[in-house]
Amino acid sequence: MGIIVVEICDSNLIHTVDVEGLLESEYPEVAVITNSCLSFCGMCALRPYAIVNGKKIFGQTAEECLSKIKDRIELELALYKL
To answer: Would you say which domain of life the source belongs to (predicted)?
Structure first.
């Protein structure tokens, strides 16, 4: 398991891209966890989102959200490199 946890919901619009495959191959420190529900009712149907180490990340498209997730991962990793 990684030092950075990315949580996504099964019903989330972000599933149009292979989040798990892309992130875990690019960042060995990341663990992507897919849950049946993250208890943010209705948010999954509105726009793509994920939770990165407890922080909600949103995007208008799956690609934009993935880009923002990667930015957050880079920020989290920078904290470990100090």
So the answer is: Bacteria
